[in-house]
Structure formats: structure tokens, C-alpha cells
Amino acid sequence: MPSLVLASASAARAAILTAAGIDFTVRTAPIDERSVEAPLLAHGAAPDKIAATLAGAKAMAVSRILMDAVVIGADQVLDFGGERWTKPATIAVARDQLKRLAGHSHRLATAVAVARAGTVVWQHLETPRLAMRPLSDAEIDAYLARVGYAVLTTVGAYQVEGVGIQLFDAIDGDYFAVLGLPLLPLLAELRRQGAIDLARGPR
Is 96 part of the annotated catalytic residue set? Predict the structure, then answer.
């Protein structure tokens, strides 16, 4: 089987693959994400397009270095009424994001791509919708105090796999996509690529 590489520094994505029993290595993509998305933003590209482009760029960049590997790239963009959000830079920004999201729904454009020999050979996009319940300032502050700087690692300043699930009324869509990696479609493609085989076990 070809070696499998995750072109992402995301601990959440690595944890998903590890829990699924996938044998892989991590190689962070050597790209400037802001430079990749700048022309897209200038032309008013939708969050779906931005997420898909970044996922493909990450996979392709690492694939050009590791030509014999199957490389996974992924990206996620929060779409709040057409407004694109990124990870909060500070706790104060995280607090502002949560205040704006409270009592409203938003979408997560979550894209995954697979590249081989420097070319993207497969892409997939999921767009789960999340409904955050109304939150008081005291609840938001208590949540931030409890979670701490971990809120800076996720777009929207929440982690539904942890305490952050208490912020929500409903989630409509793929749970793994909410976490940052549409797992089931990805596993199907990795089997097709011969990168995983349950019967043969880890490499």
C-alpha cells in the first residue's frame, strides 16, 4: 500500500484518523493560506469555494514533495450569513464571535482533497448547519474560562467534541465534517486508492 500523509497540523483531524485505525504521517503543507485565498476573496468567492481551494492546495503542495504518497488535505470555513470567519486570534475575538453566533444558525464549509503525484485526484465538500442556542454573557464567559486558549484552535471558538457541545440546540449534517474532516467519503476514496485495507491492517 502507498504511504498515507495528512497535510495538516490539525490535532482534531489527526485524532479522527487515529481513532479510525488509520496509519498515517503528518506533513504540514508549505503554503501561505492567506495568499492562496486572497484572489478568491477579491473576486467574492463563496466560503465553499475557498474551503475547497485551500484543501486542494494543501494536498497538492505536499504531494509534490512526496510523489509516491497518498496525501490528504482539508480545510474548513465558517459561513455566517455569507460572512466568512476564521479562527479567533484572541480570547476577546472568540467572545465576540460567540456573542454573534448565539441564538443563530451558521454553516461550516468543510472540504477534503486527496492528491497523488502532485495532482488532486479527488475532492469532497460537506456543509453541516449548526444552531447555537441563545447564550447570556455569563454563560459565554464561563465557557471561555473553562476551555481557555483551546478556543483559539477552532473556527467559531467552539469544539463540539468537548464542552462546546453545550452551546448548541441542533446540528444538521455530518458530525465528522463539523470536526473538520468528512470521514466516511474520505475512507471510501482511500480504499479506492488502495491506501487502506481493513483486512490487511496497518502497514
Answer: no
